[in-house]
Amino acid sequence: MRQYLLKTLLQIVPVLFLITIIVFLLVHASGDPVSLMLPDTATDEDRQNLSAALGLDRPLLQQYFTFLGNLVQGDFGQSFRYKQDALPIVLDRLPATFELALAAMIVANVIAIPLGILSATKRNSILDVFATGAAVLGKAMPHFWLGIMFILLFSVKLGLFPVSGRGTFAHLVLPALTLGSGIAAEMTRLIRSSMLEILGQDYIRTARSKGLRERIVIYKHAFRNSLIPVVTIMALQISSLISGAIITEAIFAWPGMGQLIVQAVNTRDMAIVQAAVFVFAIVVILSNMLADLLYRVLDPRIKFN
Predict the structure, then answer these.
(1) Using CA atoms, how far apart are residues 246 and 261, in angstroms rounded to an integer?
(2) Do 201 and 154 fall within a single domain?
(3) Residue 246 lies in a domain
């Protein structure tokens, strides 16, 4: 296992290197930050002086190697909006995003696991049709529309939850439901199909022929063995959580990395954008690595090579 972990970590290095190139080029292609940092009355000399101070007057390749050298030291530059180093600002917002992502994943599991199991065990019933239809509908609804509908219904009309902000459990409910609904829809369909495949296996028929209670057959034998693809899709949904968090946090004014990225993109604060995207990339890579480990733990037939 140690050799496998070392091999996996070494494979991460070229991926991160490629991410640095993509982030650097995309940020520079978005526009000139000097135009936003200076007032309209600034002269050409002011623009040239600021460009020289930021190193934007140098060749693009030289700027990239400077960026790469600073990145190795954990230096993404200074945010011109906050007048602070970018990485500490991003890391300060990370716990809020993790809190929202964890709550959304819990919501997704609470919804998807019972619906997926019931849909598989009650195949072609009214419950199966309802669960399948709800999954398709949940997948089709975009986060921004669903979040606005939740605000209008539960906050404005019923007054049950706060409209925006972070601080109490009530503030977390609507953002978590908004972000978790799409993931729940995807997981429900996956759990249903995985359970249907498992329920048709010979060892399930053998367990039933031995007189085991249906609950034990379903939850101890069938559901446990159907967890492998579920764990995999849960890890792959981390990227969906991140992309959805950007929209969800903006809608509910949730003070996480998503809201920070939206503000940084609007102001072309390159240091914040680069630091946030790089941190998000590391989170996604590590979550996929964890999923691979869990996959091998759940299925002993897969060996660590």
Answers:
(1) 7
(2) yes
(3) yes
Is this structure's pTM higher than 0.70? yes
Q: From 163, 184, 159, select the one nearest 174 (Cα to Cα).
A: 163
Residues 61 and 125 in one domain: no
What the block records as the tokens of 60 is: 């693009």
Range of the domain at 48: 2-74
Q: Are residues 56 and 109 in the same domain?
A: no
Please report whether residue 278 resides in a domain.
Answer: yes
Is there a contact between 240 and 183 (Cβ–Cβ < 8 Å)? Answer: yes
| pLDDT tens digits, one per residue of 99-152 | 998 899 899 888 888 888 888 888 888 888 888 888 888 878 888 888 899 999
Domain match, 94 and 64 both? no
Q: Is residue 252 part of a domain?
A: yes
Count the neighbouring beta carbons within 10 Å of the beta carbon of residue 180: 28
CB atoms near residue 85 (< 10 Å): 16
pLDDT at 174: 92
Q: Are 93 and 260 in contact (CB under 8 A)?
A: yes
CA distance readout (Å), 151 to 174, 175, 240, 251:
8, 10, 22, 9
Containing H/E element for 79? strand 78-79
Q: Is 61 in contact with 54 (CB distance < 8 Å)?
A: no
Four-point Cα dihedral 219, 223, 224, 228, nearest 10:
-170
Do 125 and 150 share a structural domain? yes
Question: How confident is the prediction for the chain on average, in pLDDT?
Answer: 81
**Is residue 169 a part of any domain in this protein?**
yes
